[in-house]
Amino acid sequence: MFKTYFTLAFRNIWKRKATSAINIVGLGVGLACCALVFLYFQHELSFDKGFNNADDIYRVTSTFKDGGQAPTVGLPYAKYLKSEIPEVIDVARMDPTMGSVIMEVQGAENPIPYVQDSGYWVDPNFFDLLSFHFLYGNSKTAFAAPNTIVLSQSLATKLFKNVYPIGKTLKVGTVIYTISGVFKEDFLNHIQADFFASNNSDVVRQLMGNNNSWVVNDNFYTYVRLKHNANIPHVVAELNAYLQRHAGDELKSHSDHITNSLQPLKEIHLNSAEFVDYLAYKQGNIKYLYVLASIALVILLLACINYMNLSTAQALSRAREVGVRRVLGAEKRVIRYQFLIETTMIGFCALIASAILAFLFLPVFNQLTGQTLSFFAPENVSLIFWMMLVTIITGLLAGVYPAFNLSAFNPIQVLKGKITDSPGKLNIRKLLIVSQFVLSTCLIFATVVIWDQLHFMLNTKPGFDQDQQLVLNLTGDQAQRNSAVLSRLLAANTNFKSVTAATAPLVSGDMNLYASKKTIADKQIVFFDYTDANYLKTMGLQLIAGRNLDQESFTNTNTQEDMELHDFGKQVILNEEAAKQLGFDPYKAVGNYVSHLHDGIVYNYQVVGVVKNYHYFTMHAAIGPCAIMNVNPIRCTTIIAKVDGKHAEAAIRYASEQWKKLNPDTPFAYGFLDDIFQADYTQDRRQQQMMGIFSALAIFISCLGLLGLITYSVTQKMREIAVRKVIGASVQNIVMLFYRQYFRLIIIANVIALPLAWYFMHGWLADFPYRISISWWMFLISVLSGIVVTFCTIAFKTIKAANSNPVDSLRAE
User: Fold this and answer.
1) Whether the Cβ atoms of residue 618 and residue 680 lie closer than 8 Å to each other
2) Distance between CA 505 and CA 651 in Å, rounded?
C-alpha cells in the first residue's frame, strides 16, 4: 500500500512541476534559514562546555552602589574563599589589566617582535579549575615554577612553526618567560586567550604585592568551583558576608557598597551584555540570538502557509481525481494519507534544496554574523537529525489543511463539475494570506526602524573631532618612554596639524571623585582620560568655561611607582555631566577643587575648565561624567595626531620612519579614530543587514502565497473573465476586479501589523538612550511596500488570464 502511495505521490509531483518547484523552493528557503541559524545557535551555546565540571564553575560578579555591575572583584578577594566558605572547592584569578604586550622569541636568529593583546596572568592553579586540554606539557605542573607561560596552539605555531616549543624562552614586556605548555583550541570558551602567564612572575608579583585593596582596582576575574548541587543562593549570601568581614571597614571609609553574586560559567558568553569589561568585545548577546531564531521561524512559517495556499489553489485540477477515487471506494483517511505523503516527499525534496542553499550561502551568513561557522564542526553533529525532524513536522503541518480540505470534496458534485468553495474555506485561505502579510509588514517596519536608528547613531556628531585622527599604539616600555619625543617630532612636521599623547584615545579608566567642600559620601564615579595639554585642541573639544590644562613636568621614570602619587597633574577639566553630578554649576565650576581618596591619602585637584559633553562611548550609552587630567608621558599608551587629509600617506610614512628610529624593537601599529569608534557599531550593522535580507525573503515567500490564492481565484473565475471580455471588459478592468478584492486583505493585514510592529519596535528603541522617533513615513513605506508588491503579483497572474482567448473557456457552454 505504501509503495502505491509513494508512486502516486511521485507522479503527482512530477505532473505539476511548476507548483512543486515553487513549493520546494519556498520550503527550501525556510529550512535553509533554519539550518543556518541552527549553526549559529549551536556555535554560541557551545561556549565553555568543554571544561571539566563546567556546571559547577562560576564567576564572581559585583554590583556597586550606583547600580553598576562588573564581572570582576578586587585582587585579595580570592585569598580566604576556600578556607571560609565550605562549598568552594577551588578558586583561581585571572588578571586582564596588562593590555597589549610585546612578545619576542629568545635565542632566535633575527627575532620578530609581535604585539599580543589577548594574554592573561593567572594563579598557578588556574588549569586545575579551567581544564584546557594540553597539546604539549602538563596542565598540573605548567605553573609550578615562576616566570612560566602557556601558549595557545595557534600562537605556538605562529612563533615556532613546527619546532617543539616546550623549554623555549620568550620575552614578554621586560620579563623572560619559559614556555611550559601549549593548550589546544579544541572547544569554544569565553576567554579566547593567546596565552596564559603565571602571576608568580617578575614585575607582576611585585604589582600584586602592592595591591591590598578589596575596593580599589577591582579588575580581577575570579572563578570558583563549588561542590556539586551546591545551594547557590546560600553561597551568594556567604560571599556577601565574607566581603563584609574582610572589606567592611574599607567599604565604609570609601563610603561604598558592593554586593557579590555568581554567574554560571556556561552563561558568561551570552549573558554578559550588562558588563563593560576587558572581555566584553569577545562575548555574544542572547537577545541577538533570539532575534535571529525568531526571524528564521517566521520565514519557515511563511513557507508553510505558502505551501497550503499553493496546494489549495491546485484543488480544482485534482478534484476529479479525488471524486473518482471516492466513488471507487477510497476512504477519506486514504486520500488524506496520500496528500500527507506527497507533502512529506516535497518536504524532503525541500530538505535537499535547503542543504544546497545553506552550503551556497554559508559564506554570506558568516560574513553577516562575523563568525566562521561550519557544518562539519563537532558541535553540529546533530544538525541532520534536527533538520529531518523539522522537515517531517513542517511537511505534516503544512499538509494537514490541504489533505483534509481536498478529501472533503463531495464526489457527486465534483464529477458533475459543480464543485464550489464554501465561504468558510475561502476565509481560511484569506486568513492565511493576511497572516503572511502581517508577518512580512512587521519585518519591513522593523527593518526601516533599525536602519534609521543606526543611520542616526552613525551620523550624529559625537562632540569631538574624529576625522583624520591618526592613532599610534604605544605598546611596550620602549615606546611609552619615547612618547614625548615622538609627539614633538610629529608636531614639528607640516603633515600634522596637532598631536597629543594619552593613556587611551577617549577613556582609560575611572576614579571616585567628590567636591572638596563635601564628604566622601557624596562621591561619584567619573571616567578619565590622562593626557597632555594638547588633548583639547587635537580632539576638538569645546570649552564652555575656564581654560586648558597647564603643561606640567614630571620627574618620575619608574613605572612601578604609584601612579597617582608620582604621575598625575594637579589640574582637571570636567565635562558638563561631571560638573553637575559633583554639585557644581558647569559655568561656575572653575576654581573649585575635587578630591579622591587613594591608599588612605586624599588627593585634591583644581577644576580649571569645563568642556561640552561628548560621546566617549558609543550612543548605546548615555553620556556620563568624564574628566581630563595631565599625566607623566611614560604612562601614555596612545598618540593621537590630527593629519592633513591630503597628505595622510605622507604623514603615516613619516610617523613610521620616526618610530623605527626611536623604537626599533617595537612593531609600528596605527589606526584611525573614526574606524576605532565606528567598530563598536559592528553588531548593529549586522543586525541591520540581517533584517534587510530576511525581510526580502519574507516578501518573496508571501508573494508566492499570494500567487497561490490568485491562481485559485483565476482558475475558478475563468468563465466569468471570458464573459466579461466578450461584453467588452478591458484588461485593466479585469486586473482591478481581482486587485480590489485582495487590496482589502492587505489593508486588513496592515491594520493588524502596524500597531504590533510599533509596539515591539517602540520597546526595542527604549534600550537606546539616544534614539529616533517612529515617524509617519515609516508606516507609509511599510504600507506602500505591501500594496506595490501585491499589485505586481496580482497583475502577473491576472494579465495573463485577461489576455487569454475567451473561446477556450466558453467552448463547453
Assistant:
1) yes
2) 19
- Listed in sequence order, the residues at least 6 apart from 358 whose beta carbon sits closer than 8 Å to its beta carbon are 32, 35, 36, 375
DSSP labels, 448-474: HHHHHHHHHHHHS--SS--TTEEEEE-
Q: Give the per-residue pLDDT at 549.
A: 94
Cell matching residue 275: 558588563
Give DSSP secondary structure letters for 497-526: EEEEEESSSS--EEEEEEETTS-GGG-EEE
Q: Is 804 helix (H, G, I), strand (E, B) or coil?
A: coil
Terminal-residue alpha carbon distance, the chain: 40
CB-based contacts of 324, cutoff 8 Å, min separation 6 = 411, 415
What are the E-state strand segments in 532-644? 543-546, 568-575, 593-598, 601-611, 626-631, 638-643
Alpha-carbon gap, residue 208 to 121, rounded angstroms = 11
Q: How far apart are CA 162 and CA 613, in angstroms?
A: 53
- Helix, strand and coil percent figures for the chain, each rounded to 5: 50, 15, 30
Q: What is the mean pLDDT of the chain?
A: 85
Task: Quick: pLDDT tens for 648-677.
Answer: 899 999 999 999 999 988 889 899 998 888
For residue 172, the surrounding DSSP H or E stretch is strand 169-172
- Read off the pLDDT of residues 371-389 as tens digits, 9 standing for 90 and up: 888 887 776 777 778 778 8
Q: Cα–Cα distance between 453 and 334 in angstroms, integer? A: 55
Q: Report d(CA 283, CA 192) in Å as an integer.
A: 10
Q: In angstroms, rounded to a whole number, what is the distance separating the alpha carbons of residues 354 and 33?
A: 8
Q: Say if residues 531 and 504 touch (Cβ distance below 8 Å).
A: no
Q: Assign residue 600 a region (left: φ > 0; alpha: ψ between -120 and 50; beta: otherwise).
A: left
Q: How far is CA 112 from the centre of its chain?
A: 34
Pairing between strand 259-264 and 221-226? unpaired
| Residues 27-45: b if buried by 16+ CB within 10 A, e if exposed | bbbbbbbbbbbbbbbbbbb
Determine the Cα angle at 405 with ends 400 and 410, to 5°.
150
Kindly state the helix (H) or strand (E) to which residue 793 belongs, with its residue range.
helix 776-802
Locate 482 and state its grid cell.
Answer: 619615547
Query: Contact 402/316 with Cβ under 8 angstroms?
Result: no
Note whether 84 and 161 are within 8 A (CB): no
pLDDT of residue 424: 45
Spatial CA neighbour of 408 closest among 304, 310, 312, 307: 312
pTM of the full structure: 0.84
pLDDT at site 279: 73
Each residue's pLDDT tens digit, 131-190 = 999 999 999 999 999 999 999 999 999 999 888 999 999 999 889 999 999 999 988 899
467, exposed or middle or buried, with CB in 10 Å at 0-12, 13-18, 19+? Answer: exposed
With 90 as the cut, is the pLDDT of residue 800 above it?
no
Query: Which amino acid is located at 792 in the chain?
Result: C
What nine digits make up the cell of 674? 573614526
Q: How many residues does the chain have?
A: 813
1 pLDDT tier (thresholds 50, 70, 90): low
Q: What is the mean pLDDT of residues 491-497?
A: 92
Between CA 680 and CA 619 the distance in angstroms is 10
In 46-104, which ranges are continuous DSSP H helix? Answer: 81-84
Average the pLDDT over 764-773 and give the result: 90
Torsion (CA) 688, 691, 696, 699 in degrees, nearest 10: -140
CB atoms within 10 A of CB 195: 25
- pLDDT: which is higher, 537 or 805: 537
- Residue 430 — very low, low, confident or very high, per pLDDT cuts 50/70/90? confident
Of 154, 145, 142, 266, which Cα lies nearest the Cα of 196? 142
